[in-house]
Design a protein that fits this description.
four-stranded mixed β-sheet, single chain, elongated, about 100 residues
Length: about 100
């Protein structure tokens, strides 16, 4: 299982850019960048599917894992940055579930 680090940029109101870093003998290197979007339309689509806040958070967790897995082509484990990224997502979507 590959170990990676997620490094979020300062978030925008409706998205956050996240660098995906892995580790080599030479140190850290950036593998890709993903954009996690939580604009009103994105969240409303999840609500139309019947998701509550908890289910929407799970959706984003699964989506992030799947996108990173696609780019790395293997299973991975986050050793740093997961909580920070998910806190940004939770903060971004919480206003739609008040």
């Amino acid at each position: 299982m590959k170990e990676i680090k997620l490094k979020p940029e300062p978030p925008f109101p409706y998205k956050v850019e996240v660098a995906v870093m892995d580790f080599t003998d030479a140190g850290e290197r950036q593998r890709c960048t993903i954009t996690v979007e939580f604009a009103p339309g994105d969240v409303k689509e999840l609500q139309k599917r019947g998701m509550d806040f908890r289910e929407a958070v799970k959706y984003y967790e699964g989506w992030i894992y799947g996108v990173v897995r696609y780019h790395l082509a293997q299973d991975w484990n986050c050793v740093e940055g997961w909580d920070e990224v998910m806190d940004i997502v939770k903060n971004g979507i919480s206003k739609y579930f008040a």
